[in-house]
Amino acid sequence: MKYRWKFLLRFQHVFFFLVFILMTYFTENYFLDSFELIWSIILNVFFNIGIYYLVYYYLVPYFYLSNKYPEFILYALICFLVSSLFRILWEPAVFEMNFTPKGFHVSFLYNIYISQGIVILVASFLGITKDKFLIEQDVIDLGEEKEQLYLDLLKSKLNPHFLLNTLNNMYANSFTHSEKTSDSILQLSKLLQYIIYDSGKDKISLTQEFSSLKALAALYQLKYNDQLDIVFNIEDQDEFDIVEIPPSVFLTLFENALKHSAIGIEENSFIKLSCTIKNSDLFFEIVNSVAQNREYSAETNYKGLGNDAVIHILEKYYSGRFDFISEPQENNQYKMFLKIKIHG
């Protein structure tokens, strides 16, 4: 990206001086023969490169962009007058210009004033637009960095305390021969594989994302002796191996439900998750109980950073092609609904 814009800025300078060479050729070929015309073009190009870069790299940054508009206009005008006067004096002195035809000397003056005015105006315009473009590019870069920070947040959102508790449970079960130990290791390895490898990708398949959800649910079940009311209504569809989504989106929404449902703590708490693909639309839904004791859930609605980050990622990848609803329901329940148009 930066290389392309540097090339474009350099191309602007080169293109302008090519135009300036042609302009000088057509305006001075009336006064000079071919040999002197070539030397006049060379000397004028080198002279005006200095004027051009003086305006472009000094006057614009130090005066115009610092909101010192009167000083900028004054110094630009001085550059115009000095450069024009210099050319008016040295060109006739160096070259044998033919001003015999009537009005040629007036045309010569007009040509000098117009060409020097164009040099200063173009240098000012390109210098101002370059700065504004770079500012806009910085804003774009900052926006991309912000998006990456949101994505990193999703990748690292899995509660480290939960992983630590899982390891403690595995350690406690290791003293007795228990299938829970091997199951815990298996599910934890799946989840860690997802966090370390899959979450670093731009997109992963739905099958991979659901694998992480099921591994997380299985670890919760092992912790509470398979007493949790967690239901996955996910039909086996071939599209799940093909359709890809940004990693951790569904996992974050599932973690929100685990956090706010008080599952394993309060009676009658539950989580029901469903997902299907119909007519190029992906439907993902979670319905869960809401903690009655506020100590288990600091907030019962999902307007926190988790949902904001998910929406931001969805906007990046599916702008205008998704619907996201997260709102409380009757009977102390909460519903999250996500619809994504995966094709189109």
TrEMBL record:
Q: Which InterPro entries match?
A: Bact_2-comp_sensor_kinase, Sig_transdc_His_kin_internal
List the protein's name. GHKL domain-containing protein
Q: Does the keyword Transferase apply?
A: yes
Keyword Transmembrane in record: yes
Q: Which UniProt keywords apply?
A: Kinase, Membrane, Transferase, Transmembrane, Transmembrane helix
Specify the taxonomic lineage: Bacteria, Pseudomonadati, Bacteroidota, Flavobacteriia, Flavobacteriales
Q: Name one GO cellular component term.
A: membrane
- Record domain Signal transduction histidine kinase internal region: where: 151-228
Highest rank taxon of the organism: Bacteria
Which intervals of the chain form a coiled coil? none
The residue ranges crossing the membrane are 7-26, 38-60, 72-90, 110-128
- Molecular function (GO) terms listed? phosphorelay sensor kinase activity
